[in-house]
Specification:
The protein is mainly alpha-helical and 608 residues long. The protein has three domains: 95 residues, no CATH class; 420 residues, no CATH class; 40 residues, no CATH class. The strands form three sheets. Strands 1-8-7 form a three-stranded antiparallel sheet, with no helix packed on it. It has a three-stranded antiparallel sheet with strand order 4-5-6, with no helix packed on it. A hairpin with a 2-residue loop joins strand 2 and strand 3. InterPro entries: Na/Pi_transpt. It is a multi-pass membrane protein. Its main location: membrane.
Length: 608
């Protein structure tokens, strides 16, 4: 038998030497091979060719129709959130005293944008407040930063619609959260610098003072509404100035409805009432908002499901080859450098055309999920979208009164240069593209624990900002006493994690792993067991809370071998022959160590 420590046991592809290397673990981030399963064009008859062409045209028209409904559903979603929380957002923004704290201003920007579901709306409100002299430019800069963060909540919600397939959900969630990661990293660096030195304030002040600006009342154009307003106006119409007037402190608007029921008001009263489907409902704004929220979410889910199915059926064969060779192509130097910047330009132009970064990035999310666009290509498109969305604020600033245009333009330029500085920090050098790596970490976590996506959405966009805002209301002493220790602890944990991965020998032996901590402090598994036990039996929640495992989430038989190593046994068919193969996936026993060695495409584990 020999020394058991010298025996080699296969890690994957079976236990025998010489097993086929075709079963090497696949990269979950690799785009799927979109192969044509149909008959070749040359083998089709005349009638079949006509049928295929007509079917392709019908699918293309159906896709355009679904995309239109998808955009309209996002508009309804934004309207619903405004009806439910728009007045609250206006009142929150009118808290002038607490806005002196930059961290509080940041969180108010996040909460306000989540409540109105539109960074364009929240930034326009901020610009209106600056123009009215209620908020100084310095105090408004953190709110603009928060609005930039809050705008990414929409595409994160959209990514949840692809939770039924694990790898699609992984890619879609990462594509949605890469926007979050970029915004948060930029804020973490620029907010302290802005509070200490006023970088954005002085930069934009110099730019505004360098030229003479004139008011343009017709500058604020919304290109997308030319297409969507005829349909959305049939369902509901809003009076957008109500939130703005509440934000600037006009108490007379507190009891005004956000729903626009009169389209022509004179001194004698309403001459022409507005006509739309929900006009006859005399409910409170919040109840109508909840009804519209349900309708918009149902429409959004239906459109996304049908769009994904259509894209799956259309993106095969020659079309798939064209997409892979254009959208995700890797070009030689120096053209490889230019591709990303071209993508940034495309993202900027498309967002300017639709006047909404949420719509553009939400349309990209399902494409990333099904594997049409890689995360590395989504990233520059998202950065371009961040730049494009600032044009809404600039146009709104140009429409301000002549006496206030300097201040409104300055805060609008702060929004623009916030994104430009973020791009300079996290894009030109490949090693600095941290948002991609962080988004992949979130995607992997969500693929294993699908309920994590809901928890992330609630905590990141509601609980965390609301907690910080609540602490600020308790006073500066309480605020700093809680925030500083939490921040120091977070920085220490991140630093130790980096050292554990890069240079573990620099750390004391007790800090080289987190195994000494209780399981609930270093793993999501205990919470996963609780969530599964609570909602795992509910049919509608089973997609978000499937049984998990150490490997791929399926329920796999676990067996122990004499060498004290645990193996997870699974079956898959990934060879060209289609034969079912048995995989042995090894995972660590805490009392056992080994070394890995690869021979002929097979990885072996040698016990120490």
């Amino acid at each position: 038998m020999g020394d058991p420590g010298s025996e080699k046991k296969a890690d994957i592809n079976g236990a025998a030497v010489g097993a086929s290397p075709c079963l090497e673990p696949q990269d979950p981030w690799a785009l799927p091979d979109l192969q044509d399963q149909g008959v070749k064009w040359s083998d089709l008859g005349s009638a079949q060719k006509v049928h295929r062409v007509l079917l392709g045209l019908a699918k293309a028209l159906a896709l355009l129709g679904l995309l239109y409904l998808f955009i309209c559903s996002l508009d309804f979603l934004s309207t619903a959130f405004r009806l439910v929380g728009g007045k609250t957002a206006g009142k929150v923004m009118s808290q002038n005293e607490v806005l002196k704290n930059p961290v509080v201003g940041l969180m108010i920007g996040v909460l306000s944008t989540v409540l109105v579901q539109s960074s364009s709306t929240s930034s326009s409100i901020i610009i209106t407040m600056v123009g009215a002299g209620l908020v100084e430019v310095r105090d408004a800069i953190p709110i603009i930063m928060g609005a930039n963060i809050g705008t990414s909540v929409t595409n994160t919600i959209v990514s949840l619609m692809q939770s039924s397939e694990r790898n699609e959900f992984r890619r879609a969630f990462a594509a949605a959260t890469v926007h979050d990661m970029f915004n948060w990293l930029t804020v973490i660096i620029l907010l302290p610098l802005e509070a200490a030195f006023g970088i954005l304030y002085h930069l934009t002040s110099a730019i505004v003072d360098s030229a003479k600006w004139t008011t343009n009342k017709h500058a604020n154009k919304d290109f997308l509404q030319v297409l969507t307003k005829p349909f959305t106006g049939l369902i509901i119409k809003l009076d957008k100035k109500v939130i703005q007037q509440i934000a600037i402190g006009d108490e007379s608007y507190y009891n005004h409805s956000l729903i626009k029921r009169c389209c022509n008001m004179t001194a004698d009263g309403c001459v022409k009432p507005c006509e739309f489907a929900l006009q006859s409902l005399q409910w409170q704004d919040s109840f109508i908002g909840l009804l519209l929220l349900g309708i918009s979410l149902l429409t959004l889910c239906t459109c996304l499901i049908l769009m994904v199915k259509l894209l799956h059926s259309m993106l095969r064969g020659r079309i798939a080859v064209i997409i892979k060779t254009t959208v995700n192509a890797e070009y030689r130097f120096p053209y490889s450098i230019l591709v990303g910047y071209v993508a940034i330009g495309i993202g900027c132009i498309m967002t300017i055309l639709v006047q909404s970064s949420s719509i553009f990035t939400s349309a990209l999310t399902p494409l990333a999920g099904i594997g049409v666009i890689s995360l590395e290509r989504i990233y520059p498109l998202t950065l371009g979208s961040n730049i494009g969305t600032t044009t809404t604020g600039i146009l709104a600033a140009l429409a301000a009164d002549a006496g206030q245009i300097r201040y409104t333009l300055q805060i609008a330029f702060c929004h623009l240069f916030f994104n430009l500085l973020g791009i300079l920090m996290f894009y030109p050098i490949p090693y600095t593209r941290l948002p991609i790596h962080l988004a992949k970490m979130l995607g992997n976590t969500t693929a294993k624990y699908r309920w994590f996506s809901i928890m992330y959405l609630i905590c990141m966009f509601i609980v965390f900002p609301a907690t910080v805002f609540g602490l600020s209301m308790a006073g500066m002493i309480v605020f700093m006493a809680v925030l500083i220790p939490v921040f120091v602890l977070l920085v220490a944990v991140v630093a130790i994690n980096v050292l554990q991965r890069k240079v573990p020998l620099f750390l004391p032996e007790c800090l080289r792993t987190w195994m000494w901590l209780p399981e609930w402090m270093r793993s999501l598994d205990p919470l996963d067991r609780i969530v599964n036990s609570c909602v795992g039996r509910v049919a509608c929640c089973q997609k978000l809370c499937p049984p998990q495992s150490a490997h791929n989430g399926a329920i796999l038989p676990i067996r122990e071998v004499s060498s004290q190593m645990n193996f997870v046994e699974s079956r898959r068919s990934s060879c060209p022959s289609g034969d079912s193969q048995t995989d042995l996936q090894a995972f660590e026993n805490s009392a056992f160590n080994w070394t890995k060695e690869k021979q002929n495409g097979v990885t072996f584990i040698t016990p120490l």
